[in-house]
């Protein structure tokens, strides 16, 4: 069994800053980490291979990003991912979700395909949740999003629980397939010392445009159909009225005021 985990390196969420002039994210000088939601996919992949026992099983982490994204892949290896490939070339820069999915699809094909492709629910920076389904569409594979539990993989079928508004659906999906997983799907382990040593010593292959079977016109900014027309912070227009009550009489008056306010807006 081969499980491929696409991993994105993102700026540490708490440290994200926006450039007030251009409205774009300032990535320089910001700590880069593994997309936190990808840790659940990594853990699930490792655990599935462990449960599969003896045999020819492997987990492969792939990331499209700048050379520093190697750190994210090494972290995945230190957790227990078998091997990793970095897809890095200046010609990929500026890719939108369409171009990113297209490149990841080409990398997955070069790896010889997979039984399962496990993506995070979404990346904490781009936040679209489109890349997993995009990869599935390019590979013409079934996709299940918001997977909160993988019950089992048996006879070429995965039984999964998929979060929906009212609870969850139980689905059987034919493999190979793409799953995007949510936090509930697993409990990510910490990297081990042995894993860290393995990650430090590993040879990380880096694939460029020339290593993949891709159409150069469909890459990077020029191959991206999405156009960012405007980025802005939504204005929060809220009027706040403070009711201070220091004795019982004032508290009763404040409560009457709140009731009148809610009635006036037909909220009660
Ligand atoms: C015109 C344009 C230019 C852009 N230029 C850039 C740019 O230069 N640099 C940049 O970082 N972003 C750029 N973006 C944003 C870019 O679209 C997204 O960062 C990227 O395509 C992934 O989308 P997302 O972050 O919404 O991921 P999501 O779809 O939310 O991610 C879901 C899952 O997909 C997988 N995944 C996502 N991205 C990758 C990846 N790169 N490698 C491996 N797995 C991945 C992960 O498993 C992740 O959990 C640009 C967007 C536009 C519209």
Can you characterise this structure?
This protein is α/β, with parallel strands linked by helices and 268 residues long. The protein folds into 2 domains: 2-218, Rossmann fold (3-Layer(aba) Sandwich); 238-268. The chain has helices spanning 38-52, 70-79, 97-110, 131-139, 193-201, 248-264; strands spanning 2-6, 9-11, 17-18, 25-26, 32-34, 58-64, 83-87, 116-120, 143-154, 157-164, 167-174, 177-181, 206-207. Helix 3 packs across helix 4 (131-139). The longest helix has 17 residues, at 248-264. The chain is globular and about 75 Å long. The chain binds flavin-adenine dinucleotide. Flavin-adenine dinucleotide binds at residues 6-8, 35, 37-38, 62-65, 93-97, 100, 104, 119-120, 122-123, 125-132, 221, 224, 226, 228.
Keywords, separated by commas or semicolons:
268 residues, Rossmann fold, nine-stranded mixed beta sheet, 13 strands, binds flavin-adenine dinucleotide
């Amino acid at each position: 069994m081969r499980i491929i985990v696409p991993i994105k390196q993102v700026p540490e969420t708490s440290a994200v800053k926006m450039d007030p002039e251009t409205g774009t994210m300032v990535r320089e000088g910001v700590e880069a980490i593994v997309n936190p939601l990808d840790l659940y996919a990594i853990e699930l992949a490792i655990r599935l291979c462990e449960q599969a026992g003896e045999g020819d099983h492997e987990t492969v982490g792939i990331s499209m990003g700048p050379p520093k994204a190697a750190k994210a892949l090494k972290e995945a290896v230190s957790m227990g991912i078998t091997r990793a490939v970095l897809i890095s070339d200046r010609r990929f820069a500026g890719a939108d979700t369409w171009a990113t999915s297209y490149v990841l699809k080409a990398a997955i094909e070069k790896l010889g395909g997979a039984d399962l492709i496990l993506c995070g629910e979404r990346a904490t920076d781009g936040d679209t949740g489109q890349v997993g389904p995009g990869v599935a569409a390019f590979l013409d594979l079934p996709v299940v999003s918001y997977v909160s539990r993988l019950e089992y993989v048996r006879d070429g079928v995965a039984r999964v629980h998929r979060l929906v508004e009212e609870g969850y659906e139980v689905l059987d999906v034919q493999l190979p397939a793409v799953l995007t997983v949510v936090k509930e799907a697993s409990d990510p382990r910490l990297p081990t010392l042995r894993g860290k040593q393995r990650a430090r010593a590993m040879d990380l292959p880096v694939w460029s445009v020339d290593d993949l079977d891709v159409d150069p016109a469909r890459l990077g900014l020029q191959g991206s159909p999405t156009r960012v027309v405007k980025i802005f912070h939504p204005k929060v227009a809220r009027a706040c009225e403070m009711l201070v009550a220091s004795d019982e009489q004032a508290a009763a008056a404040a409560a009457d005021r709140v009731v009148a306010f809610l009635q006036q807006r037909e909220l009660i």
